[in-house]
Specification:
alpha/beta, single chain, 2 domains, binds zinc ion, six-stranded mixed beta sheet, two-stranded antiparallel ribbon, Lysozyme-like
Amino acid sequence: MGMGMHVAGIQVHSAVPSTTDPQAPIWHASPNYGPRRDGLKPSLIVLHYTAMNSAQEALDRLCDPVHEVSAHYLIGGDGTLWHMVREEDRAWHAGAGEWSGQKDINSRSIGIELDNTGRHPFSDLQMRRLEQLLPQIMHRWSIRPYGVIGHSDMAPGRKFDPGPRFDWLRLERNKLAAPRGQNDGPLDAPMDQFRILAQSAGFSADVDDETLLSAVRLRYRPWATGPLQSADLVPMTARS
Ligand SMILES: [Zn+2]
C-alpha cells in the first residue's frame, strides 16, 4: 500500500499486481465446527443466504456456541469477506439433506453464507466477491462447477436459500456452476421423466412431486408457477 519501494533508483514492484490481488479475508473464528467424518474432503460448495438483517448479526450468530451453526465464509452486502472455519474442518451449515445420493453434506462441503434477507437482490459487490472466492476454493479442492449448489438443492422443502433472487445464470456463464441444458424439452412433461432428470442432475432427496418441482424451479426457473411444464425439464437435459 502507498509508496513503492525504490532500490538504487529502480522501483520494486510487488509480486502480485494490486489489481488482481484479492483482499485477504477477515479471520473471525467460529467455535462451531468439528472434523470431517470418514476422512472426507470437500467436493461441494453450498451457497446460502443468511435471512438476517445485517452481516454483523449473521456473523454473531454463526460464531455463537449457543446456536451451533456456522459456515466457512460469510460475504457481506458490501463485499466484505469473513472466514470463520478452516476449509479443512467441518462447519455446520447444511443439516439434513442429500445431493447426488450423498448424505452428511457438511463433511463433503464448504459453506458460504451471503448476507441477504432473502427478499432483496444480491449486490454486485457481493457477487463479485463470491466470484473471486469460488475459483480459489474450487482450485484448492478440485471441485468442479457441478459441485457448486444451493442449500435448497440438497434440502428441498426444508430450505429455500439462496432463493429466487440469486443469479445462478451469472455463475453458470462464469463456469462457477453447472451449465443448464438448452435442448428442446419433450412435448409433454411426465412427472416420472422429470424425476429421472432431476435425480441425474443431483436432486436425489426423497421428496414428493410438488416439493421436488419447487426445488428444481428455485434453481432454474424461480418465478415459474403452476403444474409441471416441459420447460421444467429443459435445464436438466444434456447440454447441446
Ligand atoms: Zn442455508
